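Notebook, p. 212. Picked up where the previous page left off. The plan for this session was modest: take the two constructs that came back from the sequencing core last week, fold each one, and keep the raw output in the notebook itself so nobody has to go hunting through shared drives later. Recording the first one now, exactly as returned: residue sequence, then the structure token string.
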Amino acid sequence: MERFDGYYLIAGQVLGDQSLLNVNYLEWLKDTIDELDRMGVDARFRPHPEAVRRGQVFPVPSYMVSKGTLAEDLAEAACVIAYNSNATVDAVLAGIPAITVDEGAMAWPVSSHNLVEPLVTPDRSEWFRRMAWCQWTIGEIQDGSAWELVRTAMQP
């Protein structure tokens, strides 16, 4: 397995989320943490903010739980792992390899799919185009709000 500097960040999800209907998410999470431990990989768990708000509890050792922002967590991450989380989209946008397990994950086409596969950072150009195609409504394009956000984001 190719190694990058930093820890592996597990992006948590909200129990009851539609993307988790066909999986025992708590078991998947525990198995993933156990496998990372066997591999000797430093890992952190970032609970989904909505899961925190709802008081959901996960089988994660307290020392692994991140208390930072997503931006802070990504700044130190070598890889982001999720069953199906849009945090992997943020990772890929930042050039950080991602592992997604569910084929419905937005980052599926540009990520690895299990811990034993090599981490990938493929050309994301077509993926970017497809994501951008779905990003704005016609109204947001017509009223200029889409351009305002893109223009602002492009400034240094």
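Okay, moving on. Second construct, recorded in the same format:
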Amino acid sequence: MGGKGSGNHFRWSSQVTTSEVRRIDIRHMNKCGYLNPNTQGILSWSSNGQPNGKIRFFTHSHELKLSYQYRENGGKWHALEQSILFDRTSCHFGGYRLWFKCPCCSRRIGVLYGVSQLFLCRHCYQLPYTSQNQGYINRLIEQKHILGKRIFAHYEMGEGWGKKKGMHHKTFDRLYLKYCRYERIWTQEVVQRLASHTNFDI
């Protein structure tokens, strides 16, 4: 993973998507009244009904301050603070709308993502939307099914058994290894999507 000196982008696995990492949505904060100046509180996340991280926030008129502890892959906790400036755009019927300014690229954004120790926009972390990666998963499943129907005498619901009649054992063994590879890659994709990549706590 690169830093600010590598083109202002943090390179992250392209298989990780926006729906799999912690996020701070300015629309949610506004709805909850968290954007009012001199407001403080705790933002928390959960996974499968279980607590999965929390941070403390302080809202000022011009910025949002985050105070939290961070660790990666079960390592040592580190105390961190991060400031995110607000940007404003005028609304058609008066008033204004608040946005975050990405601390790295200064883009006007509505959602920050906690992939590594800082909350940044998805462009800086090169995070695709979930829909952008869906085609890859579908192709893996389709290739597995095509090969399964080709080599197994019986293949139903993604499970195969028995070598297809007339197929040489060497051919079956070679294609079966390829079939297992599709299965292994697909399993790894699922595990990566469910795994928690970083931890945050107050």
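Notes on construct two before I forget. The longest helix spans residues 169-194.
Flagging for discussion at group meeting.
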